[in-house]
Write a structure and sequence with these properties.
Length: 358
């Protein structure tokens, strides 16, 4: 079957005209889908699922079989980079990710080296290639990485953390050590994203989940600066096609001007940001992605439709908006509610893309 090419997402990221607002969702493949839980059980664990390209590709495509989403995102995790650096990633039930060997001593930091993605992250690149073969040009495939700082948070803390005391202690007391980690991470992230692009990713996203926990000056020096390093080393086109990138700093709403000037094509917004104000502030320079509160998916189709309408109205007429949540889909979200959101975003957005705004 020859399926039509849907490149709405790529066009919106490049602020080109589209017939409607494209939508995809962070964590669109995940525990809210029974077929995901079934595949995860077959794999034996979350990490085994990530490391098996056949199953990871299957899981990547699951939400697309159910919903008319405008993009796929490769199924993996941001923590595969530090794992490939030798830190020993594992997951414990209820506690989230942990590392066997977090970076605590100076010699561990000095010995840190960026992994060769072709060798140490082969399974992710194989998943990317496999998904791309299955998709063709049906919808674009998004590759991703954590930001250098967000990866460093897990590498120094040794896992999820409420207060980030270890990484912040290092930031204030031994800044040169944290800079050393961040430089290594930036090189690793560029190489990893470029490898994903070479193997078929058509857009890439940098998840800076914890940049927003930093003090004002520290955000610029320890997070944004290294995102800029990554962007400056990134392939901007592949096979004659532009490869747009998205930078998402969760909690980064007060730094929109700086993020928009980082060299990215699009800025991801969490739900605390006023999308209309953000467009007026930086919409001339970048596309915007977001930013429905993920909790809305726990309500009802009628409420979901109304809240989606508000997001679309806040952005207003014209291109440059990619509909998404402000963070990932909750495991508690009913799949029918995700269907209602995708339908609402598509249906209600058409009027905002007619040739002439009223
Ligand atoms: O969006 C997608 O569908 C692609 C897959 C994806 C996952 N993790 C799968 C996953 C993506 C893009 C990520 C990114 C990621 N991973 C981030 C940045 C985005 C964010 O959520 O803030 C972070 C911080 C991580 C690290 C991580 N991985 C944590 C903290 C956890 C545990 C939290 C949780 O939800 O349980 C994970 C596990 C994880 N990554 C799951 C999935 C589907 C759940 C694992 C499971 O099946 O048990």
């Amino acid at each position: 079957m020859i399926r039509p090419r849907n490149d709405t997402l790529l066009r919106a990221l490049l602020r080109q005209p589209t017939p409607y607002t494209p939508i995809w969702l962070m964590r669109q493949a995940g525990r809210y889908l029974p077929e995901y839980n079934e595949a995860r059980a077959r794999a034996g664990s979350f990490l085994a699922l990530c490391r098996n390209p056949d199953l990871a590709a299957e899981v990547t495509l699951q939400p697309l079989a159910r919903f008319a989403l405008d993009a796929a995102i490769v199924f993996s995790d941001i923590l595969v980079i530090p794992d490939a650096m030798g830190l020993g990633l594992y997951f414990t039930e209820g506690e989230g990710p942990r590392f066997e060997r977090p970076l605590r001593d100076e010699w561990e930091v000095r010995n840190l080296v960026a992994p060769d993605p072709e060798e140490h992250l082969r399974y992710v690149l194989d998943t990317v290639a496999q998904v791309r073969r299955a998709l063709g040009n049906e919808v674009p495939l998004i590759g991703f990485s954590g930001s250098p700082f967000t990866l460093a948070c897990y590498m120094v803390e040794g896992g999820s953390s409420g207060d980030f005391h270890e990484v912040k202690r290092m930031l204030y007391q031994r800044p040169e050590l944290l800079h050393r980690i961040l430089e290594t991470n930036a090189g690793a992230v560029s190489a990893y994203l470029n490898a994903q692009i070479e193997h078929g990713a058509q857009a890439v996203m940098i998840f800076d989940t914890w940049g927003g926990t930093l003090a004002h000056e520290a955000y610029r020096e320890f997070s944004l600066r290294y995102i800029e390093h990554v962007l400056s080393g990134l392939k901007r086109a592949h096979g004659g096609e532009r490869v747009p990138n998205i930078v998402f700093t969760r909690g980064g709403g007060q730094w929109l001007d700086e993020i928009a000037a980082s060299g990215c094509d699009a800025v991801g917004l969490d739900w605390t940001v006023d999308l209309g104000a953000a467009r007026r502030q930086v919409g001339e320079h970048v596309a915007l992605q977001g930013n429905l509160d993920p909790a809305v998916l726990l309500t009802s189709p009628a409420v979901i439709r109304e809240e989606a309408r508000k997001i679309l109205a806040a952005y207003g007429y014209g291109s440059g908006h990619v509909f998404n949540l402000g963070h990932g889909v909750s495991p508690a979200a009913p799949p029918e509610h995700v269907a209602a959101l995708v339908e609402a975003a598509h249906g209600l957005s058409k009027e905002y893309h007619r040739k002439a705004a009223p």
